[in-house]
Each structure stands twice: as structure tokens, then as C-alpha cells.
Design brief:
The structure holds 2 protein chains of 2 kinds.
Chain A lengths: L2 H15 L7 H24 L5 H15 L9 H23 L18 H19 L3 H12 L4 H8 L3 H21 L1 H10 L3
Helix pairs in contact in A: 1-2, 2-3, 2-4, 3-4, 4-7, 5-9, 6-7, 6-8, 7-8, 8-9
Chain B lengths: L2 H4 L7 H13 L1 H6 L6 H21 L10 E4 L5 E4 L3 E5 L4 E5 L5 E14 L8 E5 L2 E14 L3 E14 L2 E6 L3 E3 L6 E2 L8 H5 L8 H7 L52 H11 L12 H14 L2 H17 L3 H14 L6 H15 L3 H13 L3 H11 L3
Parallel strand pairs in B: 5-6
Antiparallel strand pairs in B: 1-4, 2-3, 3-5, 4-5, 5-7, 6-7, 7-8, 8-9, 8-10, 10-11
Classes of the chains: A mainly alpha, B alpha+beta.
Chain lengths: 202, 394
């Protein structure tokens, strides 16, 4: 589907969700949810490092999407607009997690990470991912979000800047700081170093 | 292998997705019925900012510039051509329409006749829409025709438009047509790729009436095979109908028709550079000398003179430096002008030349920043549209 056609479908979908076009509003909401749930899930997963509380976070995101749908201005991409809401939800989740963890675990390991593959390699990769997110836990939320969206979710700097509401320069700086922190962590941790080297980052 | 591949996303169970969807959808009715959330802080901040800006404007300018007047076009017997920078409008003879730019967008109100538009993709830009009677055609990025005589007909050559009437929305794609006849919305199926010119002019219901009128537009002719405006298509007299495929088909020396060939795809960056370069730079003040002597004369005047005279000299200096190929010096002079005379009489020309110089090298951050500044301050719609296009480059 072309970008223009997708954009137009978004416009019509939102009109249907808001009940401005005769038809089943609920069906339109389901269409919108199904269209963007994968994208939002991937972004939240890669920012937070797992599926812990994911259903609540997805619900929080989409409830906000539908509650604010009237304020969407059609000249901006709906996907980007939804991403912004998802990122705000992720920020709040990071804040809640930090407040909740009074006593961090000894190795600072993030509990839940899925890795697919053959057994020994998968275990090694799983360990690497855990250590990666443990290192990201020590970063300021803005750096963590920028790094996760750019380096892990594969988005461009400009897109990350747009989604996070920062300038491209500030976004580059945040990603650079995150890389520097990860490099320092990797210097002390051979498993993380190996994982990052295989992963092509930082 | 990238980090993206190393951190795969574990999907939720289908049951979890189903429950989640039910919970989310349950909120939708309430959300749609609820009024838009009131945000006091932005309103308060906007009022405060507006007050500060108004105070600053009143302090620095004797009078605020009037809002741009609507552009009223009444095409004569040769038709009319309007270039808005990011949109080109061609009107048939006798067409009357008005162009306004509310909130930076483009609104074309068609009173009578037919307009054909070629519009750059609107993603990230303010909207463009055409209003004819009670029909609104919203543009995504396309070439299309709207006719009002008195029923409203819309034909899309390429791209996508959204037609709205009485709350009903219809998406029209390339080759599709729409008519407001009898108040019923009817959409023709898209023309199959092999159908060629004949199918592209097909009517909605097989009758010839509505589409014959659309197809008979004299100066507005699009090649249904390429979706582009036919270059060099001769204008047809009103009321006559060109033979499909014959009017614009190139011929060889023997007079035999050649198969149509699509023009090479345009490079948007090159096009933008050409569009920037096509805008003339206003002349500087007259000098008694030429070349380096003129530069020296203007340099002295920019230092010894005061007020508007110094501003004019500094503008002349920058322009002379630019004309002499001394771009870096010209840029310094332009920056000096904007620092010393931010509301100077030549500030629009200064900002435009600065944009040109910065964007000559590359469409980088400095270029885009200059374009953004220019777009927010200028009253020239064509240049503003070009500056906006520059800000959208990556």
C-alpha cells in the first residue's frame, strides 16, 4: 500500500472512530487497534525490554489514543501521533518501575526477555539482552528511549526526534550518551561486550 | 546482524490480544462522545506568548502587516495558471475561483468552471482543499480536476484525494471519478492498467454526460498512461472534445504516431534547487562604481551611515559580494544585517538571499533553519511555500 493511500485510510478510519461517518464506530476502533497494535507493542517492548505489564501499557496507550483522537490533526501521520502517545506511556512506565524497585537485584537483571534460536546461542543471546537492558536501566529515561528506538527498533534519528518531541541534535546526543554508557558497561562485562559486538552496536 | 535482530519482540498470546481489544474498544464510545480535553496550560501559555509577541511587534514595528488578501482569479479566454510553489493550478477559460491560505494551508473555492491541480504530497504540510458548492475535496498529493457547472465532478489523474459531502467521505484514486449528480455519491472503479486512454475517460455509469464534460476540458489534459500532464498538449477550443490519445501523441518524421513514452522521473532535490534559483534576488542600491570598488563603497557607507541608509548599504554590500562570487563574505554581511536591522526594509530580501546561499551548499540543518525562519516571517506566498519545502528535506 502506498504511503498516501495508507495516510488516507488513516483519515477515514479516524473519522469513522469519531462517529463522523455513518457506520459502526466500534468496528472502526477495532480496525484502528489491529492496524497499530503491532507497531505500538514493538516500540514498548524494545524500550522496556520485555512484556512485563505489557497488556496494561497497551491498554493505557490505546485508551489515550481514542480519548485524544479528536485532537489528531490530519497533516501529521497517525502512526507518528500514536507513537508519541506510546512513548509517553513508556516514560511513565520507566518512572513507575524505578519508583517500585527499592532494592535492585544484585546483578540488575531485567527479568523477562524472549530470545529465539538454538539452545546454547539462544541462552547466550538471552543473557546478552538481559545485560543490555540492565545497562539501559542505569540511563536517564530520555537516553534510554532514544537509544531503544534508534538502535533497537531501527528508526531514523529524525523519526525518533519527532516521536520524542526533541530536536534531532538532542536525539543524537542522547543516543551518543547511551552508547558511551553501554561501552563503559561492556568494558566491565565480557558477555555484554560479546553481545554488542555481534549486534553491531554501539 | 543488528541489535534489532538480536532483540526480537515476543508476541502476546492470541487470547491476551482478544481481551485487550475488548477492553480498549469498550472505551471508544465514551471517548468519542466526550468533549475534547481542555488544556489550560497551553491556552495560558499561548495567551502569554501572544501578549509578549504583540508587545514586541508593537515596540519594533510601527504597524503590523495586514493579513494576506485572498487571491481572486477570473480566467480570461486563455484560461489561467497559478503557481503556489507546492501546488500548481490551471483553470479553464471563464473559471472563477479564490485562493486563501488559512493557517498556512491552501483553500481553493471554486465559484464556476474547472480547475486542474498538481499538488505535492501534503504529508507534514498544512492541508490543501478545494471547495465547490457543498463538496470538499481534500488533497493528499495528486493531480486532479474539479468542475462545477453546476453539478460538481471530480476526476483524479494520479494520487489520492478525499471527497466529502454531507458528512460522507469517499477516497478517489488514480483513474476514478466522482459526481454529485442527484445527490448520490457514485464512484467509478479504477481504470485497469492496460485500458489506456479510453478507460481513463470512462463514465461512472456508462453514460457519457459527466465524463464527457470532464474530458472536454480544453487546456487541462493528463496522460492517463503516465498520470502526468501532457507536455505540449495544444489547448482545445471550449466545447470541442479532443480525440482520445490523438491530441498529444508524438509523431515521427513520416507522420506516424509514436508510442507514448513516460517522462523521466523528476529529482525532487534538483527540482527544489531549480525552484529556489528561479526566484529573482531584488536589486541592491545603485553605486557609482562597479565590482570591487562598488563593494568598498558600500562597505564604507554601511559603517559611516546611520539607520535605514546603513541598512540599505549593508544589503547592497551583501548583494554585490554575492554577485561577485564572494559567498562567504556575503553571508557574513547578511548575518550582520539581520543582527543590526532585524526589522529593516530589506530584511525579506536579506533572509531570502541568506537562505539561497546556505542551501546552495547542501540542504543541511543551517539551510533548513534559515528556511524555517524565512517561512515564518515572509509575506510572499510562493517563497514561503518553497521555504517550507526546504524545511521538509531530510
Amino acid at each position: 500500500m502506498s504511503t498516501q493511500a495508507a495516510y488516507l485510510e488513516d483519515v477515514v478510519l479516524v473519522e469513522r472512530c469519531l462517529g463522523r461517518v455513518t457506520g459502526a464506530q466500534e468496528a472502526a476502533a477495532r480496525d484502528l487497534f489491529r492496524r497499530y497494535r503491532g507497531r505500538v507493542h514493538a516500540a514498548l517492548y524494545r524500550i522496556l525490554g520485555g512484556n512485563a505489564d505489557m497488556e496494561d501499557l497497551l491498554q493505557e496507550t490505546f485508551v489515550q489514543v481514542f480519548a485524544s483522537l479528536k485532537s489528531w490533526r490530519a497533516e501529521a501521520s497517525l502512526a507518528t501521533w500514536i507513537d508519541r502517545i506510546a512513548v509517553r506511556v513508556a516514560y511513565r512506565a520507566i518512572g513507575r518501575r524505578r519508583a517500585r524497585i527499592d532494592q535492585p537485584s544484585p546483578d540488575g537483571v531485567t527479568p523477562e526477555v524472549a530470545v529465539h534460536g538454538d539452545a546454547p546461542g539462544a541462552l547466550l543471546a538471552k543473557d546478552g539482552v538481559r545485560r543490555l537492558y540492565a545497562a539501559l536501566d542505569r540511563l536517564p529515561p530520555a537516553s534510554r528511549v532514544a537509544f531503544a528506538l534508534h538502535e533497537i527498533d531501527g528508526r531514523s534519528m529524525a523519526e525518533v526526534a519527532e516521536v520524542t518531541g526533541a530536536s534531532v541534535t538532542a536525539t543524537k546526543l542522547r543516543v551518543w550518551r547511551a552508547r558511551r554508557t553501554l561501552e563503559a558497561a561492556a568494558a566491565r562485562d565480557p558477555v555484554l561486550r560479546e553481545f554488542l559486538r555481534d549486534g553491531g552496536a554501539p | 546482524m543488528t541489535l534489532r535482530d538480536r532483540v526480537p519482540v515476543e508476541d502476546l498470546a492470541p487470547e491476551a490480544w482478544r481481551h485487550l481489544e475488548q477492553r480498549v474498544v469498550a472505551h471508544v464510545g465514551d471517548a468519542a462522545a466526550a468533549p475534547a480535553p481542555r488544556r489550560w496550560w497551553p491556552a495560558l501559555a499561548a495567551v502569554a506568548a501572544a501578549g509578549a509577541i504583540a508587545a514586541a511587534v508593537l515596540a519594533t514595528r510601527p504597524t503590523a502587516p495586514p493579513p494576506p488578501r485572498p487571491l481572486v482569479i477570473a480566467a480570461d479566454d486563455r484560461g489561467a495558471h497559478v503557481d503556489l510553489g507546492d501546488a500548481v493550478i490551471d483553470a479553464e477559460p471563464g473559471t472563477r475561483f479564490e485562493v486563501t491560505r488559512p493557517d498556512g494551508g491552501v483553500r481553493v473555492a471554486l465559484a464556476v468552471g474547472a480547475v486542474a491541480l498538481e499538488v505535492a504530497p501534503r504529508r507534514g504540510r498544512p492541508p490543501l482543499w478545494v471547495v465547490a458548492d457543498d463538496v470538499t475535496v481534500r488533497v493528499v498529493g495528486t493531480a486532479f480536476t474539479v468542475r462545477r457547472d453546476p453539478t460538481v465532478q471530480v476526476a483524479v489523474s494520479h494520487g489520492v484525494v478525499q471527497v466529502e459531502r454531507a458528512g460522507a467521505l469517499v477516497a478517489l484514486r488514480a483513474g476514478e471519478r466522482w459526481s454529485s449528480d442527484a445527490g448520490v455519491i457514485a464512484v467509478a472503479p479504477p481504470a485497469p492498467p492496460t485500458a489506456g486512454a479510453t478507460d481513463a475517460r470512462r463514465t461512472i455509469d456508462g453514460a457519457a454526460s459527466a465524463d464527457d464534460r470532464l474530458a472536454g476540458g480544453p487546456a487541462i489534459d493528463f496522460d492517463p498512461l503516465t498520470g502526468r500532464r501532457r507536455v505540449g498538449a495544444p489547448p482545445t477550443a471550449p466545447g470541442t472534445r479532443p480525440t482520445p490519445g490523438a491530441g498529444a501523441a508524438p509523431r515521427d518524421h513520416g507522420g506516424n504516431a509514436k508510442p507514448p513514452t513516460a517522462p523521466p522521473p523528476a529529482d525532487p532535490v534538483t527540482d527544489l534547487r531549480r525552484a529556489l534559483a528561479s526566484q529573482p534576488i531584488p536589486a541592491g542600491p545603485p553605486t557609482t562604481a562597479r565590482g570591487a570598488e562598488a563593494i568598498a563603497e558600500l562597505q564604507r557607507a554601511s559603517v559611516t551611515e546611520r539607520g535605514p541608509a546603513a541598512a540599505t548599504a549593508l544589503w547592497g554590500l551583501a548583494r554585490a559580494q554575492w554577485a561577485g562570487g564572494r559567498a562567504a563574505e556575503a553571508l557574513r554581511s547578511l548575518d550582520g544585517y539581520l543582527r543590526r536591522f532585524p526589522g529593516g526594509a530589506e530584511s525579506d530580501a536579506v533572509s531570502w538571499l541568506r537562505l539561497r546561499l546556505l542551501c546552495n551548499r547542501d540542504f543541511d540543518d543551517a539551510c533548513r533553519a534559515a528556511a524555517h525562519t524565512y517561512a515564518t516571517r515572509t509575506d510572499d506566498p510562493t517563497r514561503r511555500a518553497l521555504a517550507v519545502r526546504v524545511t521538509e528535506t531530510r
